[in-house]
């Protein structure tokens, strides 16, 4: 399988199906899944520590049309956009069929619980073994209690939804406590969507690569990030660095 690098951050050139297969079939250590988008990569361009953090992922998914555009400009096009929430939704479908246990971590008060309720209505045989919010102290006793609760629930899959880079830092800092989990995926605002607090873009907008515009129109504060997106696109190099890896 091929991977490219954008601003020193690896991006796996996978389809959604391949990503799900690779995550669920990984052996040994947990498969840690990050979903870099244009804003995350722009921050990584300015901060090598963030680039190093993103490169700790076992699987790095191209989340966003800006990433696909940049890869195209660099001469190594990616096969498809793999949005974190779409990856997560496919994992949930596989978990329902296979009896895997899922834990939801993140969001404001009651968001994870409401997301769990909605997901159970859609996936009637899905086992969501636990939920908790994301606004806890990430160190000390409170963090230890959260980790103990997650471990006690014995999940196969852990979705961490606390925003970049908090979620990625938390996973890497606590990974040695979570070694019994098969898949740990950082999925940003997915819980807000599953809870019904946010709506995804209409299919036609997603198909045209305009989901970013929908998010900005629905959440005007996101317009403040527009200069960062422009900066990301402006600084994309013309030639890519890439490596060949073994196929799945």
User: Helix coverage percent of residues?
Assistant: 40-55%
How big a fraction of the residues is strand?
15-25%
**Helical segment tally?**
12
* Structural domain count: 1
Rg = 17 Å
Element-by-element helix/strand order: EEHEHHEHHEHEHEHEHHHHE
Shape: globular
Largest sheet: 6 strands, parallel
Number of strands: 9
Mean pLDDT: 89
Distance between the first and last residues' Cα: 7 Å
Show unreliable segments.
240-248
Describe the structure.
The chain is α/β, with parallel strands linked by helices and 248 residues long. The protein has one domain (2-244). Helix content is 45%, strand content 16%. It contains 12 helices and 9 strands. It has helices spanning 16-25, 38-46, 48-54, 65-73, 84-98, 111-122, 140-153, 166-174, 190-194, 203-207, 211-218, 226-234, and strands spanning 2-6, 9-12, 31-34, 59-60, 101-106, 127-132, 157-161, 183-186, 241-244. The chain has a 6-stranded parallel beta sheet, with helices on both faces. Strands 2-1-9 form a 3-stranded antiparallel beta sheet. Helix 6 links the parallel strand 5 and strand 6. The longest helix is centred in the middle third of the chain and has 15 residues, at 84-98. Residues 240-248 have low confidence and may be disordered.
């Amino acid at each position: 399988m091929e991977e490219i690098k954008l601003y020193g951050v690896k991006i796996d050139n996978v389809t959604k199906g391949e990503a799900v297969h690779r995550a669920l079939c990984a052996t040994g250590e947990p498969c840690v899944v990050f979903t870099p988008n244009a804003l995350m990569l722009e921050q990584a361009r300015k901060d090598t520590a963030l680039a190093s953090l993103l490169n700790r992922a076992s699987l790095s998914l191209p989340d966003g049309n800006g990433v696909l555009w940049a890869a195209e400009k660099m001469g190594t096009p990616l096969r498809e956009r793999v949005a974190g929430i779409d990856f997560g939704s496919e994992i949930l479908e596989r978990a329902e069929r296979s009896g895997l246990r899922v834990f939801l971590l993140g969001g404001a008060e009651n968001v994870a619980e409401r997301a769990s309720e909605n997901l159970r209505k859609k996936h009637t045989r899905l086992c969501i073994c636990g939920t908790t919010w994301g606004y806890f102290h990430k160190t000390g006793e409170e963090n230890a209690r959260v980790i103990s609760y997650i471990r006690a629930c014995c999940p196969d899959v852990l979705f961490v939804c606390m925003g970049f880079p908090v979620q990625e830092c938390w996973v890497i800092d606590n990974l040695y406590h979570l070694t019994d989990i098969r898949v740990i995926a950082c999925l940003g605002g997915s819980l807000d969507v599953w809870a019904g607090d946010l709506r995804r873009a209409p299919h036609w907008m997603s198909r045209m690569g305009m989901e970013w515009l929908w998010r900005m129109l629905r959440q005007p504060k996101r317009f403040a990030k527009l200069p960062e997106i422009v900066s990301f696109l402006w600084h994309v190099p013309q030639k890519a660095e890439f490596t060949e890896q073994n196929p799945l």
